[in-house]
Amino acid sequence: MGDMVSPPTGIDLLKAELPVDQEAFVLNGDVKTGLVMVDLVNGFCTVGAGNLAPMQPDKQISGMIEESVRLARAFCDKKWPVFAFLDTHHRGVPEPPYPPHCIAGTDEANLVPELQWLENEANATLRRKDCIDGFIGCVEKDGSNMFVDWVVNNQIQAILVVGICTDICVLDFICSALSARNRGLLSPLQDVVVYSRGCATFDLPVRVARAAKDVIAHPQELMHHIGLYIAKGRGAKVVSEVTFS
Ligand SMILES: [Zn+2]
């Protein structure tokens, strides 16, 4: 009996039905690429930091931080453009359906300790946003869009997206960027690339959700996969490795 192959889990079966083919992404400098980092803030990434922070150490989230820091360091060393969203809300202004999180002026709304140095990098643009979709969060009072300006001013041809949550803020931003690109708003942008190991989402297993009131289950591995699957279906490229040549 010990030699038997274990039967496929529900997640294995769903992944087989919703395959996400991934390739390796090599940055050689020929295609002007910008790094977009979504919400690497304490309120989503640091254990115990708030209502939407992990309650215990989380492998997917710590791996996402590690890979994001590696890429941010490499982009900054090469003086390539980096754009970082920081989820930040005014106290007393709710963001349904979520509980209060990342309140302005608290450490929840600050970059994780491993990325604090980004604040002093000349080629990094930091943008606080008070909504899920960072593209919408970049709309200014005069109707201009700070993210559009960043792409156009830097003549960015590809964006590489990392961050949290794969199926929420990362996905919504990717979908909006793809629509904006298709409408010609982001010229010369061609490719929207999402790095699977550079993304993560939160874990709320179905057994925990069932025991709580008014909570929707959100199994981490599956929702991460579904986020990537939808991004790919909308036209993003999903990559499993990012290297520099
Ligand atoms: Zn938020």
TrEMBL record:
Protein name (database record): Isochorismatase-like domain-containing protein
Species the sequence originates in: Linum tenue
Gene Ontology terms describing biological process: pyridine nucleotide salvage
Record-annotated membrane-spanning stretches: none
Isochorismatase-like domain segment(s): 34-203
One Pfam family linked to the record: Isochorismatase
Family membership: Belongs to the isochorismatase family.
InterPro entries in the record: Isochorismatase-like_dom (IPR000868), Isochorismatase-like_sf (IPR036380), NIC1 (IPR044717)
Gene3D superfamilies: Isochorismatase-like
GO MF annotations, alphabetized: nicotinamidase activity
